[in-house]
Each structure stands twice: as C-alpha cells, then as structure tokens.
Amino acid sequence: MAESPKKKCPICGKPMVEEFKPFCSRRCADIDLNRWLTGNYVIPARDDEPLPDADGEDENF
Ligand SMILES: [Zn+2]
Fold first, then answer.
1. Is 12 annotated as a binding residue?
2. C-alpha 35 – ligand 1 centre gap (Å)
C-alpha cells in the first residue's frame, strides 16, 4: 500500500485533478467560485488541512 494520499476535491470529495486543482473538475471549481461570489462560502474553522500556498508542493510527509 504505497499509495500517496491525494488531495480531495473540497466540493465533492473526489480525488483532485491537477488540471483543476484543488478541485476534481472545472465544474467543482465553478461551484466553489460561485460560493465565493454569492457569499455562501463558509470557511471551516481550524481545519487540520493547511492551505495550499505553493504550486505543486507536496506537504505530505
Ligand atoms: Zn469535485
């Protein structure tokens, strides 16, 4: 079991796709954008996941 833990799409929970990261598809990216625009986006307080601040940087061990 040497599977590297991939990030999941914050919208639907599917594995992230590089092309649309951090989402799994453009659709989910669109949904996320829409949430921001409509002000419905709720940032989870103190999640254990650090924000992706670098491109392509693997923050896992
Ligand atoms: Zn998704």
1. yes
2. 14
Please write the tens of the pLDDT for every residue from 8-26. 999 999 999 999 999 999 9
Tell me if 16 sits within 8 A of 7, measured CB to CB.
yes
Q: Which CATH number fits the domain 8-41, given the four candidates 1.10.3720.10, 3.40.50.720, 1.10.10.10, 3.30.50.10?
A: 3.30.50.10
- Find, among 44, 51, 42, 2, the residue nearest to 22 by Cα: 51
Sequence-separated (6 or more) residues with CB below 8 Å from residue 50: 59
